[in-house]
Amino acid sequence: METISGSAFAALLSQADVSQAGFARLSGVTARQVNNWCRDRATVPRWATMLALALRELSVEGLTILSDELANADAKP
Question: If pLDDT is split at 50, 70 and 90, which confidence band does 40 have?
């Protein structure tokens, strides 16, 4: 997967109906960093692109539930 432009990343967030601040909270980065990606001030990491693509397909709530289920599965002996 190639790196995408900031405008393409911003479009993914818009399609996913996720704000820059919401993406920052979900991913553990600062809102300023997400804004820098969206404005082409910094390269969008591949993981951020993949997460935005997943959010476009799943709701934030659905992704959170999936994450919790995976964490619980890893915690079981």
Answer: very high
State the CATH number of the domain containing residue 71: 1.10.260
> Do 49 and 3 touch, CB atoms closer than 8 A?
yes
Q: Confirm if 16 and 55 have CB atoms less than 8 A apart.
A: yes
| Residue 54 contacts residue 63 (beta carbons within 8 Å) | yes
**Of residues 27, 29, 19, the one with CA closest to residue 67:** 27
| Domain extent for 55 | 6-75
**Domain-embedded: residue 49:** yes
50: tokens are 């993949």
Q: Nearest Cα to 38, choosing from 7, 3, 2?
A: 7
Its pTM stands at 0.75
* Structural tokens at position 1: 């997967």
